[in-house]
Specification:
Blueprint (H helix, E strand, L loop, with lengths): L1 E5 L3 H12 L3 E5 L3 H8 L10 H10 L3 E4 L3 H5 L3 E4 L15 H13 L4 E5 L7 H12 L5 E5 L9 H6 L4 E4 L3 H10 L1 H5 L4 E4 L1 H32 L3 H9 L20 H14 L5 H24 L8 E5 L15 H10 L3 E5 L4 H7 L4 E2 L3 H5 L4 E4 L4 H4 L3 H7 L4 E4 L6 H6 L3 E3 L9
Parallel strand pairs: 1-2, 1-4, 2-3, 4-5, 5-6, 7-8, 9-10, 9-12, 10-11, 12-13, 13-14
Helix pairs in contact: 1-3, 5-6, 10-12, 10-13, 12-13, 13-14
This protein binds nicotinamide-adenine-dinucleotide.
Nicotinamide-adenine-dinucleotide (NAD) binds next to helix 1 and helix 5.
Length: 438
């Protein structure tokens, strides 16, 4: 199959490279000239484990190429994927579909022969029909079908997720387009990946329902963590105790500073908006949004209370800035709430993040960056763990204690063992862990 991928960000680039690995001929297109120039030089504009090798291998094999304009790639494609951004629209929380519709209009101009146009971007229900309308209006004679194929990959594990997904959801309404989609995903069929074929609306709703459910699960365990802190229970044991129930499952039951990232915040908002518009309000999701926003704001107070009510004049060492480990993505990261609030309260922040510091330097003014986690600890009056990068789990607490001015840690991801840390003389607070008695 010949595939054009319109938008070469986290989703487009990973999907394009993986489709090439499946054996298809793929052209990844992006409007951002600098991204395409980097990719053509063999550089990867984002951090995603394994992506550099996957891209290099497939470029070398002649199956993956890059372009700044879509005309050539779309003109010769069997399938065109739209993987552009759908950020939150300013003002009302709905998804901003400007990029999707602009891409659809451009694609319409370039179509040649029967082509399947697929939205991989996360788009509110109804968008697929609108994409079809835009193309039909611009090119009444064009032979095409529109398909919805939402993407469920997670940043940080994107290649594995794409190559071995739990399922593929495909909203398709013609047998011709269904055959094209089946051919594209044939390698996954061979490993018996469940394919969920639906109508277009169902596929669009499925993506939002999935993300809203996961955001709800995180928010649920965060509130249970608050309860645990008040009553001397340990949220980790509670999570294990309920997670071993097969109806609940153990994933997404890790308490923390609130969910962030490029998907959950904007997708929960867009779902709530869509649902209100059609008079089917999603009150649970609305509550999740409110609780999560409040939680992210509250985390700085947690640190301040931990420091006896003031961080004025203190040096706070921050470990982790990205919204989760193994990505450089800072979109809606809890650090964007926590760090400025601590700065406003008079703290000096020294932060370390393995991949996020370049983007953080743009988003968080007045921050000092350390070269290593130990450098961030040096002279700190308190450390705050915001992102659970695997390498932080291996830090030597004795060395941290030697380097810090005061051995105090607020561990918003529960990466350390409270008993061990307290045994070593740290004043330590995690999330949802029992406080020492007495
Ligand atoms: N990031 C994730 O983990 C993830 C997971 C599942 C789904 N999604 C969804 O996938 C979509 C893309 O997300 P992302 O994180 O890859 O976004 P991104 O911002 O990283 O990438 C989008 C890219 O599209 C390009 N673009 C915009 N308009 C274009 C046009 N007309 N022609 C060519 N290129 C154009 C931009 O320059 C940008 O590089 C969103 O709808 C998102 O919700 C994201």
């Amino acid at each position: 199959m010949r595939i054009a991928m319109v938008g070469s960000g986290y989703v487009g680039l990973v999907s394009g490279a993986c489709f090439a690995q499946f054996g298809h001929d793929v052209v990844c297109v992006d409007k951002a000239d600098d991204k395409i120039a980097q990719l053509r030089k063999g550089e990867i504009p984002i951090y995603e484990p394994g992506l550099d090798k996957l891209v290099a291998d497939n470029v070398r094999a002649g199956r993956l190429a890059f372009d700044t304009g879509l005309a050539k790639a779309v003109g010769s494609a069997d399938a065109v994927f739209i993987a552009v951004g759908t950020p939150t629209r300013r003002g009302d929380g709905y998804a901003d579909l400007t990029y999707v519709y602009a891409a659809a209009a451009e694609i319409a101009e370039a179509l040649s022969g029967y082509t399947v146009v697929i939205t991989k971007s996360t788009v509110p229900v109804g968008t697929g029909r609108e994409v079809a309308r835009i193309i039909r209006e611009a090119r009444p004679g064009a032979e095409f079908d529109v398909v919805s194929n939402p993407e469920f990959l997670r940043e940080g594990a994107a290649i594995e997720d794409f190559m071995k997904p739990d399922r593929v959801v495909i909203g398709v309404e013609s047998s011709r387009a269904r055959d094209v989609m089946a051919a594209i995903y044939r390698p996954l069929n061979l490993i018996q990946t469940p394919m969920v074929f639906t109508n277009i609306e169902t596929a669009e709703v499925t993506k939002y329902a999935g993300n809203a459910f996961l955001a709800t699960k995180i928010t649920f365990i965060n509130e249970i963590a608050d309860l645990c802190e008040k009553v001397g229970a340990d949220v980790h044991d509670v999570a294990r105790g309920i997670g071993l129930d097969g109806r609940i499952g153990r994933k997404f039951l890790h308490p923390g500073p609130g969910f962030g990232g490029s998907c959950f915040p904007k997708d929960t908002l867009a779902l709530a908006y869509t649902a209100r518009e059609v008079d089917a309000p999603q009150t649970i999701v609305e509550q999740v949004i409110a609780v999560n926003n409040a939680r992210k704001k509250h985390m700085a107070h947690k640190v301040i209370e931990f420091c006896d009510g003031s961080v004025a004049g203190l040096t706070v060492g921050v470990l982790g800035l990205t919204f989760k480990p193994n990505t450089d993505d800072m979109r809606d990261a809890p650090s964007l709430d926590i760090v400025p609030a601590l700065q406003a309260a008079g703290a000096r922040i020294v932060a370390f993040d393995p991949e996020g510091m370049k983007e953080a330097a743009r988003l968080l003014p007045g921050l000092a960056f350390a070269k290593t986690a130990y450098d961030a600890a040096t002279g700190a009056d308190v450390m705050v763990v915001i992102t659970e990068w695997p390498e932080f789990r291996g830090l030597d607490p004795r060395r941290l204690k030697q380097l810090m001015r005061q051995p105090r840690i607020v561990d918003l991801r529960n990466i350390f063992n409270p008993e061990e840390m307290r045994g070593l003389g740290f004043t330590y607070e995690g999330v949802g862990r029992p406080q020492p008695r007495g």
